Amino acid sequence: MKIKVKVNGEWKEWEIDPSDYLLDVLRREGYLSVKRACDTGTCGACTVLVDGFPALSCSVLAATMDGHEITTAEGIADEMEEYIKALASEGAEQCGFCSPGLMVMVYALKKEIENGKVEKNEEAVKRYLIGNLCRCSGYLGQQRAIFKFLGVK
Amino acid sequence: MREVKKSVPKKDSYGLIRGKPVYTDDIAPRDSLIVKVLRSPHAFARIKSIDTSEALTMSGVELVLTYKDVPRKPITRAGQGYPEPSPYDKFILDEYVRYVGDEVAVVAAKDERTAEEALKKIKVEYDVLEPVLDFEKAEGNPSVIHPEDDIFPQFDIGFDPKRNIAASYEMEIGDVDEIIKECEEDPDCVVVKDRFYTQAQAHVMLEPHASFAYIDMSGRLVIVTSTQTPFHVRRQVSMVLGIPIKDIRVIKPRIGGGFGGKQALHGELIVSLVTWKTKKPAKLVYTRREVFEATYTRHPSRFDVTLAATKDGKLRAIAYDVLWDTGAYGEHALTTLMVAGSKTLPMYNKVDGVRFRGKVVYTNHVPAGAYRGYGAIQGNFALESAMDILAEKLGMDPVELRLKNIIREGETSPIFKIMGEGREGTDMIIKSCKLEQAIRRGAEIINWEKKFRKREKRGSKVKGVGMAIAMQGSGIANIDMGSAIIKLNDDGSFNLLVGATDLGTGSDTILAQIAAEVLGVSTDDIIVYSSDTDLTPFDAGAYASSTTYVSGNAVRIAAEKMKKLIIEEGARKLGLGPEEVEFDGKVIRAKDGSKEVTLKELATVRYYTEDQKQLIADGSFVGPESPPPYAATFVEVEVDTETGKVDVLKYVSILDIGTPINPALARIQAEGGAVQGIGMALYEDVKYSSSGKLLTNNLMYYKIPSRLDVPDIHVEFLESYEPTGPFGAKSVAEIGIDTPPAAIANAVYDAIGVRIKSLPLTPEKVFFAMKK
Ligand code: FES
Ligand code: FES
After folding, report:
1. Relative to the alpha carbon of A35, which ligand is closest?
2. Are both B568 and B599 inside the same structural domain?
3. Each residue of B743-764: pLDDT tens digit?
4. Best mutation site among A46, A102, A104, A134 for ligand 1, i.e. most ligand atoms within 8 A of its Cβ?
5. Which of A38, A99, A129 sits opposite B288 (nearest CB)?
6. pLDDT at B152
7. What is the enclosing helix (H) or strand (E) of B269?
8. What is the reported pLDDT for B364?
9. Is A126 close to B673, i.e. CB distance below 8 A?
10. Residue span of the structural domain in which B460 resides
11. From CA B152, how far away is CA B162, in angstroms rounded?
12. C-beta of A58 in contact with ligand 1 (< 6 A)
């Protein structure tokens, strides 16, 4: 079947199988920032935005995306320059496999805070990001960077 | 120091965070055959018959391989230096399957779906055998896991497969039984005897194992893989497939974590075989379930520890009797076992006698392999728990007991010489050891004096504090080599080529900092290329906490040679002798200030106009010793007496890692290690069904710490300088993981007076222990 999706601001028309997951289609189409790290929707490495809200692309059928807007790490990296700097200067990404998914989530979180949907404090930030697993860093470096970026005191 | 002891961002930071396509699966050729593996549903079975005809006729299926189609050549996939201390007890595919998940057949097809369909079409009849699932019943069990006669070790490792023994080891200094007997009879002495268990832990590096292979334009086999050991991969693929080393190139792109799990070969042999046979590119990316079911875990263990001490707290003897479960194959069996002793026993170097006896048994479980800590974390839990039990019996503060007995700068331990990794070790006088300071500082931060044995209550919750100390190593002395090449470019920048393997740790950056420091240039002027067997010089790989110390020293040597070369060439250009000039990283200048040439000018001249030659230098290094980093960890916990749940409130770890070349990266290593260790201490646990099927085969059933599980962690590095290390550095990769299990168990005891002697400290375990 065919679907039309707007990815990182550009409309695309893709031929997909109805049983394809969004993650596989995105990777096939060259959006390689989207990673697969589990089979169970548990790790957050595949996080993208669908119409501005975070979604686990490994658990979303591509067929349901027709007409929707998808944002991947590639699409927000320029806007997130300051965040990238903060994370890099903490040395908080080690292997980096979790990093693009986390960046997408932090991007969404920033919007939520701006819209007053999520409180701007450490606990709320941690809760919002709980689904993004990282096995290398122990999270604390990430958090130092994220708190700084979001201005959480 | 200008470039070291400085937190420069990792060279790959920007690319990684932005999500650039840099991992194995991102860069595999689009037309790669997709490789899938049929895995055993039985813990132990012999393949009676296997019929692949239906799968082979499917359209889109390129190749199906069973044990009949592959060379029968025993190997070890361990990914260690040659000759390996692990037995050659594995075949690419075999008639026997020895754990649920073991390889039965390989399919290569045009796409994922076809490959998966084809797997279902393979008909296998098994002769199901009685598995060995309890490692305490493995030795001499009538079920022999490796009955085949064509497996062997490279040298004597105590290999006795007919009795299910993969390796064994014994050593003794002094007459330990005699000392223990004396102490038992002497009212002025105390003896502690206890048994401890540690569980299997899964690595859960976020990137699953992935590799692909293709044939290049000259017909050579190129393997791109998420490995920690590209040079060992090349050697082992060559050995098994009979392809000369010169016809194989192994490249490691960025990799998504390893922790030891990618030291071994997993998919590499299979994709190589498929590509070599079909001449087509082929890739194999493990599913998360496969990573759990068919790669590695940490070795589960049982320790019987005996400690003997005088009433005033002087340790007189330590004895370990250890049983070690290596699962279906003996990868890292002997070496992890020995590290359990060699990286714990020397901490208490003032004893009169010390004994280590251990056996590693085969079981029908997922093979155990290298995992951060590498035996030391298991040994640490047993020894540091036993030390607390001893302190209690002596009526002595555990901090004081440690301070009385620990190793100090300028001292040694006979263990260093006797126990190496799989063979004899190397004598060493400890040149840097801030363990005492670490203990004192940690005690101060946690407020030990005020909190120990105070058992502060809040409703059903009780607080407690506990501590543990640890040591690790820095590379494998006299065995593993690292090397580096530095060449000058015509703009005055340098290429640094290293075989060392950055698995996310930041070693590319750290090695660049070391080169920059020697040369007096900025780290930005060092361009690093690593881990490509065609283009970078040999390096054993990233394991055993080796890269900063071993590869770092190789880089230091290469950079020193380069500096000498620049001075010589610069002096020649100026018509002076080398002793008459100096080089500050930019300019080669006569010491009397009369003339100068910039590095850029010199390079341009040497490459384009005059006396042309490439300025290039190399360095190799094998550690003459393996200087240990040390840690003292103090934790405060709160135990809920109604549920048994343990919460870590505060975690303080004071480390001596020598000079931290990059303090920010070192801190992340220490914090990340601590969190992995806390996971092991509290809940991570690889579990099997009664028939040997892995139950914890995904991230829902196998829980790793999330960000809400992370306590308040305070990590501090003490001023320390290791004279044999590059700019004083030792290692940081593993030391952080060793202490959490014992420190937390000791804190739980402090809180509720209940001693948990088997990991993990789950709420049920703590609860039932309390009720007893
Ligand atoms: S890959 Fe989607 S949550 Fe893990
Ligand atoms: S940096 Fe490796 S998983 Fe997060």
Report:
1. 1
2. yes
3. 999 999 999 999 999 999 999 9
4. A46
5. A38
6. 98
7. helix B268-278
8. 98
9. no
10. 301-476+625-771
11. 12
12. yes
Looking at the structure, do residues B677 and B762 belong to the same domain, yes or no?
yes
Are residues B616 and B646 located together in one domain of the fold? no
What is the rounded CA–CA span in Å between residue B542 and residue B550?
Answer: 10
Q: Which CATH superfamily is domain A2-73 in?
A: Beta-grasp domain (3.10.20.30)
Q: How far is the CA of B288 from the centre of ligand 1 (A)?
A: 10
- How many CB atoms are located within 10 Å of the residue B522 CB? 16
| Percent of chain A clearing pLDDT 90 (strictly above) | 99
Collect all residues of chain B within an 8 Å Cβ-Cβ radius of residue A35: 23, 206-207, 256
Residues B45 and B122 in one domain: yes
Q: Choose one of B285, B309, B331: the last residue of a domain.
A: B285
Number of Cβ within 10 Å of residue B693's Cβ equals 16
Best mutation target, B5, B14, B18, to test chain A (most A CBs within 10 A) = B18
CA gap B522, A68 in Å, rounded = 47
Beta strands in B311-430 (DSSP E): 315-327, 353-362
DSSP-assigned beta bridge partners for residue B527 = B495
Predicted pLDDT at B751? 98
State the amino acid at position A110 in one-letter form: K
B464: left (phi over 0), alpha (psi -120 to 50) or beta: beta
Percent of chain A with pLDDT over 70: 100
The number of angstroms, rounded, from the C-alpha of B603 to the middle of its chain's C-alpha atoms is 41
Q: Which CATH number fits domain A76-150: 1.20.140.10, 1.25.10.10, 3.90.1150.10, 1.10.150.120?
A: 1.10.150.120
State the Cα–Cα distance between residues B468 and B447, nearest whole angstrom: 15
Q: Helices B333-342 and B376-394 meet at what angle, rounded to 10?
A: 30
pTM metric for this prediction: 0.97
- Tell me: do B441 and B495 sit in the same domain: no
Number of domains in chain B: 3
Q: Verify that B315 and B406 share a domain, yes or no.
A: yes
Partner residues linked to B318 by β-bridges? B307, B354
Separation CA B14–CA A87 (nearest Å):
9
Q: Measure A66 CA to nearest chain B CA, in Å.
A: 23
Q: Which residue of B has its CA nearest to A86?
A: B9
Beta carbon of A7 within 6 Å of any ligand 1 atom: no
Instruction: For residue range B4-57, list pLDDT tens digits in order.
Output: 999 999 999 999 999 999 999 999 999 999 999 999 999 999 999 999 999 999
Q: Do B464 and B544 sit in the same domain of this protein?
A: no
What average pLDDT does this structure show over B579-589? 97
- Are the Cβ atoms of B665 and A91 closer than 8 angstroms? yes
Q: How confident is the model at residue B421 (pLDDT cuts 50, 70, 90)?
A: confident
Q: What ipTM describes this predicted complex?
A: 0.98
Residues of chain A with CATH 3.10.20.30: 2-73
Q: Where are the beta strands (DSSP E) in B540-615?
A: 581-583, 587-590, 596-598
Atom of ligand 2 at shortest distance to CA of B256?
2
Q: Give the pLDDT mean for A34-62.
A: 97
Cα dihedral: B68, B74, B78, B79 (round 10): -90
B225's enclosing H/E stretch is: strand B221-225
Other beta carbons within 10 Å of A19: 10
DSSP-derived 3-state class of residue B415: helix
Section B380-388 average pLDDT: 98
Instruction: Work out the average pLDDT over B497-521.
Output: 97
* CB-CB under 8 Å, A135 with B257: yes
Contact B496, B527 (CB under 8 A): yes
Please give the Cα distance from B429 to B412 (Å, whole number): 5
Two structure tokens written together for B66: 């069973």
Residue B464 and residue B430 share a domain: yes
Which domain-ending residue is among B581, B603, B622? Answer: B622
Count of other CB atoms within 10 angstroms of residue B641: 17
